[in-house]
Amino acid sequence: MKALCKTKPEKGVEYKDVDLPKIKDDELLVKIYKTSICGSDIPVYNYTGWAPRRIPLPFVFGHELCGEVVETGKNTKGFEKGDFISVESHVFCGLCYQCRNDQRHVCSNMVVLGLDTQGGFSEYAAIPARCGWKHSDNKLKEIASIMEPLGNAVFATLVEDVAGKTVFVEGCGPQGLFAIEIAKACGAQKVIALEGSPYRQKMAEQMGADAIFSPTEEKLLEKIKKASGDPSGVDVVLEMSGHPDAVRLGLKAVKPAGRFTAFGLPGSEMTLDYSNDIVFKGIKVEGITGRQIYKSWHVMEGLLRSGKINPAPIITHTFEMKDYEKAFATMMDPERKCGKVVLIP
């Protein structure tokens, strides 16, 4: 089969023939329909940051995918040939303290598909059956590869109720754009967005943001509080960018006893005014990783099937997998003129 394979400790990958995966007794063989590029795929592609320490060579990466089950392991239950699935990329053990206390998203023995094990930038992939999300029909087929990242935004936004609250979304990459639409669909009084790319500012408006600011604007904190309608700040901050300046801004923008959701990943350690911005304000800081398995998936499917959200416009580019260089160049465009980028084998 054809796959995007990391073969050398340098930038780039090869589109080449690799062996068809042999499934284990608890796995499914899935024929990939679509797969999408995550921001975490960029360090793998460029072989920078954490990637050289984590990624073995040769390696097929990619963890946002959907497809048709073509073979089932003898110990799998609930799946049969022809089923169409999306994939939960976080492979949980089911046995540790976290898994046995409904915290599978932070499993002590977590393995991530396409980062720790062979992934889905390929024609076929071996998927643990416990990570398959079976679709009842084809209604969501065209967006099924982005349900994994959409679930991140569902978890980040709705870890607590947002109905009637002001929500400040920092960073309007796909995750931030998902979050804007989710917050509006779930009754947020007002959604304020922060984004520097004019392209993504327009997308934020399309997703329902009520006010949009650039990080370079003067008196930014003052403008955010004014837009919220409350001089003490916003009720909820969804920090989706990971930029240190955005983190510090968000902590100052959230009102006393408000909620700060930390999702974006800074590239290095940072300094914070811990006492004044967290302790004395009495705010709640929620760290978010992955999705609540499978609570986030059930909530997400309900929002999608009810028509409350439609993330399809966030998919701005689709490429055949053989055109991967164009796809990754689009993702890495410094002007950020893209939303979600999808590959078709």
What proportion strand? 25-35%
Q: Given this structure, which CATH class of the largest domain is correct?
A: Alpha Beta
Unreliable residue runs? none
Mean pLDDT: 97
Structural class comes to alpha/beta
CATH topology of the largest domain: Quinone Oxidoreductase, Chain A, domain 1
Tally of alpha and pi helices:
10
Dominant shape? globular
Helix percent reads 25-40%
Oligomer class: single chain
End-to-end separation in angstroms reads 10 Å
Beta strands, count = 18
H/E element string?
A: EEEHHEEEEEEEHEHEHEHEHEHEHEHE
Q: What radius of gyration results from the CA coordinates?
A: 20 Å
Biggest β-sheet description = 7 strands, mixed
Pfam family, one: ADH_N
Protein name: Putative threonine dehydrogenase
Organism: Elusimicrobium minutum (strain Pei191)
Keywords: Metal-binding, Oxidoreductase, Zinc
Record the SSE blueprint.
Elements lengths: L1 E5 L7 E4 L9 E10 L4 H6 L4 H4 L4 E2 L3 E9 L11 E4 L2 E2 L19 E2 L11 E5 L3 E3 L12 H12 L7 E5 L3 H12 L4 E5 L3 H10 L3 E3 L6 H9 L5 E6 L4 H10 E9 L11 H6 L4 E4 L7 H11 L9 E6 L3 H8 L8 E5 L1
Parallel strand pairs: 11-12, 11-14, 12-13, 14-15, 15-16, 17-18
Antiparallel strand pairs: 1-2, 1-4, 3-5, 3-9, 3-18, 5-6, 6-10, 7-8
Helix pairs in contact: 3-4, 3-9, 4-5
